[in-house]
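Q: What residues go here?
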């Protein structure tokens, strides 16, 4: 029996991830940064606990969502945060 999958959209591109995956993992699978620093560097989850805030992204229109604390949901739309 195959693992259940959900489809999310990362910067407009659909990707399929295992159900129950953390959003920060999905962004790594998509090779997409969570946010872009003020100096223009791509950033991604660092601590994996929501403390460092490097994993912030725009999720379903909500900025500053901690992707390392957010479980992927079917149809979720994620954008790299400027």
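A:
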């Amino acid at each position: 029996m195959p693992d259940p999958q959900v489809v999310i959209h990362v910067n407009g591109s659909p990707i399929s991830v295992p159900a129950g995956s953390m959003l920060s993992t999905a962004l790594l699978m998509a090779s997409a940064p969570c946010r872009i620093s003020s100096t223009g560097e791509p950033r991604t989850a660092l601590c994996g606990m929501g403390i460092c805030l490097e994993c912030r992204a725009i999720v379903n229109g909500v900025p500053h969502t901690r992707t390392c604390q957010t479980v992927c949901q079917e149809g979720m739309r994620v954008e790299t945060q400027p």
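A: Context that may help when evaluating the design: The longest helix spans residues 23-29. The first strand starts at residue 5 and ends at 10.
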